[in-house]
């Protein structure tokens, strides 16, 4: 087993715990069954693969400009995270991991948030898991959303 695989599994477990906690606090645990979860900058799709085990009726789409298509239970889309080509208002949950590492280099933060807003359903939730949250707090606040969980109602 490679170091990358171990890191990915630990990260997936952390993201799943965070997501479950956010949804429980928001009273939205029941959102996931039969819905759509999108992971922006999905890498190999480990987080979605692990979530699929918990929510087998939920559709999982990973978006990355170069996805590593590792799991057959994840749909992969090759696209920029600021232009996913996904339908409007379809995702109940949008996830991202450490996207702040790419802010300003690969994409602009406002373009990213506009895309998240476009693909989320009304009442959907954006859940970032980011080591450098401070880079993201200001854009969240500027557009009027709460840091660390965006609730679109």
Helices and strands in order:
Layout: H1 3-25, E1 36-40, H2 46-54, E2 59-64, E3 75-78, E4 91-97, H3 109-119, E5 120-129, H4 134-142, E6 150-151
Helix pairs in contact: 1-2
Structural class: alpha/beta
Radius of gyration from the CA trace? 14 Å
The overall average pLDDT, rounded, is: 76
Fraction of residues in helix: 25-40%
What is the count of helical runs?
4
> How far apart are the first and last residues' alpha carbons, in Å?
43 Å
Please provide a written account of the structure.
The protein is globular, with a radius of gyration of 14 Å. The N and C termini lie far apart (43 Å). Helix 1 packs across helix 2. The longest helix is centred in the N-terminal third of the chain and has 23 residues. It has a 6-stranded mixed β-sheet. With 153 residues, it is of the alpha/beta class. It is built from 4 helices and 6 strands.
Quick summary of this structure?
This protein has 153 residues and is of the alpha/beta class. It has four helices and six strands; from the N terminus they run H-E-H-E-E-E-H-E-H-E.
Keywords:
alpha/beta, 153 residues, six-stranded mixed beta sheet
